[in-house]
Amino acid sequence: MFYDAVEVASRDELAALQTEGLRRTVATCLASPFYRRRLGALGVGPEDFNSPLDIRKLPFTTKDDLRVGYPDGFLCQPREDFIRLHVSSGTTGAPTAVFYTANDVAAWANLVARCMHAVGLRRGDVFQNMSGYGLFTGGLGIHYGAERLGCLTVPAGAGNSKRQLKLLRDFKVDGVHIIPSYALHFGQFLRQEGVDPADLGWRFALIGAEPHTERTRRRIEEVLGLKAFNSYGLTEMNGPGVAFECAAQAGMHVWEDAYLAEIVDPQTGAPLPDGETGELVMTTLGRDGMPLLRYRTRDLTRFIPGECACGRTHRRLDRITGRTDDMIIIKGCNIFPMQIEQVLMAMPEVANNYLIELYQENDMDQIRVKVEVRDEVFAAAAPTLAGLHKRMVARLRDEVLVTPAVELVRAGSIPAAEGKAVRVEDHRLLEPA
Amino acid sequence: MFYDAVEVASRDELAALQTEGLRRTVATCLASPFYRRRLGALGVGPEDFNSPLDIRKLPFTTKDDLRVGYPDGFLCQPREDFIRLHVSSGTTGAPTAVFYTANDVAAWANLVARCMHAVGLRRGDVFQNMSGYGLFTGGLGIHYGAERLGCLTVPAGAGNSKRQLKLLRDFKVDGVHIIPSYALHFGQFLRQEGVDPADLGWRFALIGAEPHTERTRRRIEEVLGLKAFNSYGLTEMNGPGVAFECAAQAGMHVWEDAYLAEIVDPQTGAPLPDGETGELVMTTLGRDGMPLLRYRTRDLTRFIPGECACGRTHRRLDRITGRTDDMIIIKGCNIFPMQIEQVLMAMPEVANNYLIELYQENDMDQIRVKVEVRDEVFAAAAPTLAGLHKRMVARLRDEVLVTPAVELVRAGSIPAAEGKAVRVEDHRLLEPA
């Protein structure tokens, strides 16, 4: 029934596990340059933690802290114990890196396997991973979990819908991992190909990496002819496998034996009661290599009060409803407007202003950048402009990892803002949650 | 000194291991529909194998056999024991699939770790995998091997040179896996960026997936400022990790405890003595899920006579010097001209003739397809032709997995062949080996 007995541990048992995990994690953290300094200044040690609530004795860790500590200021084990790292962003946006020991990779795979089991997948099922691999944790993270569960795993990677379809059919796939925007696009592709999704015989889609509404989920289920399950994860907390929906599809169980989750007021940092929306703050309880204490995810959500029909005792997170910063998520990639600005401002042809527009096309979220170019450049011959356009697209793609549409416009044609510049216009259809 | 004591086993010990492996493999094969029929017809069983040479009692297995058996006619274990599959080609070219049990994945990782150790990489070294992941075995195959060896593995994936460079620097990478054409391209990129390769401090590049000459290897070593090691593998034999150069760089040791390699006359199938060039034929000795007996690789090479300075006793394969079929390898992807023909002939706008041209640009092998289009299409407005061009590029890319240059030409403009049509023109610089 459950992948792991801990999924139905009593709340008291979970509290005991969390306390123990918190003590162990604080002890481990003392080996890293960053936390040794920070915890040393506070004078706290493992012995100060006697309940999960004692976590409030600790200060927050922020993305800026990770950037300052980049690349390896948070490591708690000898260098030779690490076997993997993932990086969260491009080349000019200050990146953050997460390092994993062999134990961490195995524990992560186990959590992902638990998530996939909760959805309904079992050993022997065929599972196609339709998300990109590489530094994006969604690829290798889900892949290792699927193998751990014992699914026959098809590492399809992202894109190439025709080939995806052939694999789905040839190997009688039961479940897939797919980002929501590509799921909608793939549904459109199936319609164009005249494929009845019901004929595919697939049953499960794990959809994560992009926040989406309940209506989008229902639409994915309709166009693909399966059940779609929301997934939550972030590279700083390993990647996918942090919180996952069960068959009840009523919120995402956060694995409380592996993570201590809090919801706080984003302004004051004060803890909020279950049911109230605030910023999700996460602490790893079982990570050896690079534990993080009270990491501010900048994701806005809430705990769903009450018990879940499935019997699991781990609390459920509601859908992510927003961010406390200006991060944009397109095709599963995290983009900060500042990354785009840095690329543009390093190009001498660019004039003063630019505008990022978000829109939808073919059911997928897209990004377009309007860029003012200097008058003498704008007046140049067509091949010069075309060359600049090509170069700009390539540099932006290398930085944000998706290919944006780029439109070169005359200097002065983007209205100057009065006061704080508006750099992003979101024209995506906003659907009721 | 060695990753595994078996690397220096005596030839007698290896022969005993191979005989034992051959018996076990024949016994395992009897569980698959394909081999049960074939071995049954011959009346041979495990007891008939008393030396590695007894392998000659067995018939060959060909790529056509694999295609006929697609998708799962070669499986020797219950379906639920498989956790991975890789597929060797696109959507219309009849694909072949290889399935792996958990044991197979672990054994494969072990062989790759052994290869990486032979090159000089060690636990604690930082290793950047600069090849694509997904269904291409070079990605996950090398990745699992690097983690098994205990390297800090950076799953960079292919492309995005700027980001690759940042990762190389930030994490002080010791070794990389990179396909030869991208290695040369990356060298050019470093020069353009004004980077002295010596400043990177890297030492090793594993280069595989594309046959290349000794001169290309030396050029890669020069432009990257490291030692480059040739690697041999093919999806049917797991992927990378079949044969690998050691520090002596004098041929690729084929792991004879895991594979039984033969060189045969491609016309008659008769075994050739060590030193003579012929077709490489491979038998898996340790694979549980999908063992293959006497698989004809279509790769032309020879055993290098004599002993290796490194002390390893496993025989060495020379560079691959050609193929017995018309397969083209571009950017690590296997392309058969027939795949291109099938895509083109499914498009009603296409006239009778086409031509595949191979050439070099930016130090990388490229593919261009000239396609005759019907007169009324050729006479159509520019947007119509542009639309056709775009559609054709997309369909070809989806099929062969690299993006070809496409040139639409007037019907009749490609000279008709007298006799057998010439479909491929190879304009690549042929370098002396």
Could you characterize the architecture of this molecule?
The structure is a homodimer of 433-residue chains. With 433 residues, chain A is α/β, with parallel strands linked by helices. Chain A folds into two domains: 5-325, 3-Layer(aba) Sandwich (Rossmann fold), CATH 3.40.50.12780; 333-426, ANL, C-terminal domain (GMP Synthetase, Chain A, domain 3). Helices cover 31% and strands 25% of the residues of chain A. Chain A has eleven helices and 21 strands. In chain A, strands 4-3-5-6-7-8-9-14-13 form a nine-stranded mixed β-sheet. A four-stranded antiparallel β-sheet of chain A has the order 10-11-12-15. In chain A, a hairpin with a 2-residue loop joins strand 18 and strand 19. In chain A, helix 4 (102-119) crosses helix 5 and helix 7 (180-192) runs parallel beside helix 8 (214-224). Chain A is globular and about 70 Å long. The model of chain A has no long low-confidence stretch (mean pLDDT 92). At the A-B interface, strand 1, helix 5, strand 4 and helix 6 of A face strand 1, helix 5, strand 4 and helix 6 of B. Chains A, B: Pathway: Aromatic compound metabolism; phenylacetate degradation. Chains A, B: It catalyses: 2-phenylacetate + ATP + CoA = phenylacetyl-CoA + AMP + diphosphate. Chains A, B: Its EC number is 6.2.1.30.
Question: Brief overview, please?
Answer:
Two copies of one chain form a homodimer. Chain A folds into two domains: 5-325, ANL, N-terminal domain (Rossmann fold), CATH 3.40.50.12780; 333-426, 2-Layer Sandwich (GMP Synthetase, Chain A, domain 3).
